[in-house]
């Protein structure tokens, strides 16, 4: 799964701004030694450093900015201009903020000659966001190589997976442990299946809803070194419903009602996210053309009411930046070139309680491209717990 330049960024734990004298040789050297990844669509000298090598590159720099070292703005034909010390909000998670904070011009354009040495203009600034994500992988057996690569690239702390389509005994616990993820999986074989992954460990809470028995629900406390308390994560794969005259349709409505009733046991002040494939488009503009869905499931008022009941309890529908155009679709049918035409649906959601402060969210449309993709794209969210 290759990414074009500027695709979903690494977790913004450490950012470094540098200026380079004349060419790319210094960048190549740094890449080879320290693991720096150059963003090819940024000007020369714009780099980002993976958290795993942050301490080695920092050379003992504290979490706060060092005295006299500031992040600054870039001006064409000049070196980076010093600016005021940056706070957490200045080192944001969005791709646009990344672009602003990682840009640097060649120092040679300002008449400076550093003999191809890296001139560090700014120091390191650590950001304590927790990164979570949800992804309907549509068979973890088929999608495992893509999932593992995506986990390394995006580096989420917590992930909810849906449609794993495998039994618990076949779930790839060991391969995920190789990436330092603990996992809770609820599976039943060829159909359904949900999972929760956590970098800093998790405590399973529940694998069933009261009433429905299929493998569509998992709940766990996920721990994080960047948060003072755990985040309760619920991964859901809501039944499709098939058709409004199918027995699966009332079953879907009852499943949503059971999910809502499960919240009666939770304090709304608890840091909580429910995320996954809801198989419901909450609004008409959550599908490419509402006229194409006349008489269909996913857009009926009873289904939408089932999701709104979760919001009424105290959850917020997290708004994610779209990967293309102006609507954050998360699902595209495999047929008829619907992905390339952006004829999609927004049916995957992250619903968050009030103590969960959202810093950024985006649909990772790049993960829907390439060989053997899922028909869903992940939603990635950076947050803080209050």
Architecture (CATH level 2) name of the largest domain: 4-Layer Sandwich
Tally the structural domains: 2
Helix content: 10-25%
Q: What does the largest sheet look like?
A: 6 strands, mixed
Summarize the helix and strand pattern as letters: EHEEHHEEHEHEEEEEHEHEEEE
Beta-strand share of residues: 15-25%
Low-confidence stretches: 2-126
- At the fold tier of CATH, the topology name of the largest domain is Deoxyribonuclease I, Chain A
Count of distinct strands: 16
CATH homologous superfamily assignment of the largest domain: Endonuclease/exonuclease/phosphatase
Number of helical regions: 7
Produce a short descriptive summary.
The chain is of the alpha+beta class and 386 residues long. The chain has helices at 25-34, 54-58, 95-102, 140-154, 173-177, 248-262, 301-313, and strands at residues 18-19, 37-38, 47-48, 119-120, 130-136, 158-162, 182-186, 194-198, 202-206, 217-222, 231-237, 272-277, 316-317, 348-352, 356-363, 379-385.
